[in-house]
Amino acid sequence: MAYSGGVDSTFLAYIASQVLGDRMVCVLVDSPLVPRKEVNFAVQIASQMGLPLRIIQVNELKEPQISRNSFNRCYFCKFKRYSLLREFAMTNGFSVLLDGSTASDAIDYRPGWLAIQELGVKTPLKDVGFYKDEIRTISRELGLPTANKPSSPCLATRVPYGQMLDLRDLGMIESAENILHELGYEDVRVRHHLCEVETPSVVGLELRDKTGVPKRELYLARIELKPSDFERFWREGHGNVVVEFLRNVGYTWVTLDLAGYRKGSYDL
Fold it and tell me: How far is residue 78's CA from residue 113's CA, in Å, rounded to a whole number?
């Protein structure tokens, strides 16, 4: 089964392991789109729960349909990943591939869902009508360590559609979110905006277009926190800490989104 260490896949992995025993295996996709701390957490939880785990390495950014970051990027990414998972299943004698999608996923825009359907992946939690809140509740009752874990979609969801994805940008996003997590903010996103400025007077990385005109690529970080965290963010001086850190990472401008953290931006 596809495993990420999140609330849903960990719950399904636990149930599957109880029913199937050694006739199931969890497979984790390790990719530049997945934060390192999430990979490490997933491995730790699988070990803690005694879940059999295999890891597949993939770099989706090598696929132009994904790196171009179009509106249906998630479809191509899911198709790539689950094709590899299905190949692993067939090669290792498994007849069924499971995914932890829930009924809650049907509410949001999920282009990746089509890829899952096309590849014949089974989604038992969605099929029986389980919503994420219900899975969290049952996970608490079962004592699963992921019951209260915040969601953590792939890093590409921090980048506006149409803006190219590359390793440097993903690294900037991951570093920026890590410092916010270290300061105690769980529900947080750092939206990554590329701003092209055609004036050499602005500090940034100088490039030249085909005509030799100086051009600069500057980066803006738009931080989304829960509105209830705003007061602590300023009271404890975290604003200055974050600005200094993010500028060292490569951002020219660091902003706090007054609308706060919200799901749905670039399809979380």
Answer: 8
CA distance 190 to 177: 6
- Total domains in the chain come to 2
Q: How confident is the model at residue 268 (pLDDT cuts 50, 70, 90)?
A: very low
Amino acid at 47: S
* Predicted model pTM: 0.89
Both tokens of residue 137?
A: 């509740």
Q: Which of 84, 115, 142 is the last residue of a domain?
A: 142
Residue 40 and residue 127 share a domain: yes
Please give the residue range of the domain that contains residue 191.
155-256
The pLDDT score that the predictor gives to residue 194 is 95
Same domain, 232 and 205: yes
Q: Long-range contact list for 79-87, CB < 8 A, 24+ apart?
A: 79/115, 79/118, 79/119, 81/2, 81/29, 81/31, 82/2, 82/115, 82/116, 82/119, 82/121, 83/119, 84/29, 84/56, 84/58, 85/2, 85/27, 85/29, 85/56, 85/121, 86/119, 86/120, 86/121
The rounded distance, in Å, linking the Cα atoms of 93 and 95 is 6
Same domain, 39 and 87: yes
What one-letter code names the amino acid at 73? R
Q: Residue 120 sits in a domain of what CATH number?
A: 3.40.50.620
pLDDT in tens, 97-156: 999 999 988 766 678 889 999 999 999 999 999 999 999 999 999 999 999 999 999 999
In terms of domains, do 130 and 23 share one?
A: yes
